[in-house]
Hints:
The protein is of the alpha/beta class. The chain contains 14 helices and eleven strands.
Amino acid sequence: MDIVILAVVIAVVALGAISGLVVSSRKKKQLPPAPPSSPSVTAPPAEPHVGEEAEAPTAKPRRTVEEVELPPAEAPAVEEPVVEPEIAEPAPAEPAIEVPEPTAGRLVRLRARLSRSQNTLGKGLLTLLSREHLDEDTWEEIEDTLLTADVGVTPTQELVERLRERVKVLGTRTPEELRLLLREELLALIGTDADRSVHTEPGVGVNGEEKPGVVMVVGVNGTGKTTTTGKLARVLVADGKSVVLGAADTFRAAAADQLQTWGERVGARTVRGPEGGDPASIAFDAVKEGIAENADVVLVDTAGRLHTKTGLMDELGKVKRVVEKHGSVDEVLLVLDATTGQNGLVQARVFAEVVNITGIVLTKLDGTAKGGIVVAVQRELGVPVKLVGLGEGADDLAPFEPEAFVDALIGD
Ligand code: GDP
């Protein structure tokens, strides 16, 4: 009898184990694997994990910086069992979301970084103009100083002509008069009327829905393009905007990782795809994601290589056209490395052939005496310099303000 009972018990236990296995294997099958090649959206780590916002396909209210920075007030929808871990392993520290510096006055704060241009352009010119006798040799030296600082031939000639006229009228010159005169003329050369704001205002998409401001960042790899995209995200977050990043530079290995890291630091999502994937589809998906989550701005990083002009450069045109299927691209920023001088101007020309550049970002102005490139590149493209890079620090990107720039060069 006992043996019969024992056999029944064993049979029941065995059946239970088999059915348990079947259920758990079914459960596993219910979780579809993520498609490996489709662009993925990576959420910043400090976002709430429950009811993850990025995954909801419906439009949500616009997120503010405060919302990004603070944990949600409401209780999580899924209750987690309160189990105290026996051994509290130190959890891997999630990077805290940073609060970027306000953008106002950044150029003034960073003015010391312009010291090389300051010595060449500003102080160099003032010293020459202060000479008692402004003979032909001195004027030639003034011209050389401007050319060395990459101001460009035509603007240099114009400036020297204006200075000659005004110095003659002035007669005796005090240092203060000379400084004011040079300030006025440099400002006239750079221009104070241009609209230097980065256009990021939301608009209306092709389906009548609200569309984030869309900014494409273009330029040759190595100029600081991805870094600038990351820094610009910080500028926008500092100004209270929510940002989605599109990692469409699939040409350079690690560009997407680099951008994602920048995004995570300020709570911005990054839409990315496989290395070597189609940049246009990533850019398209980034804007789609921006629309879905009611972001204020979508920044799209792109790839650029001049020596493969017909490949990557045509691709750039395609990225823009594909993004425009959602609605307008509001800003196309060309990133130029200020230390490359004339080479930068050649790059500017090539990019302007492929996309309609609306603003220039001059990077690495901290590492050059060639601050005059501001003048030359604006003349070349007929487009204003909107931002300047003055270092490798996260907040070393400043809105370009002609007055602050000139004052930094010649002292105030
Ligand atoms: P990309 O290939 O154009 O995307 O170039 P990256 O964004 O990777 O930048 C190339 C290098 O330039 C990096 O080491 C950046 O830190 C550096 N860089 C970018 N902007 C500036 C700047 O304004 N000043 C300085 N000194 N370095 C910069």
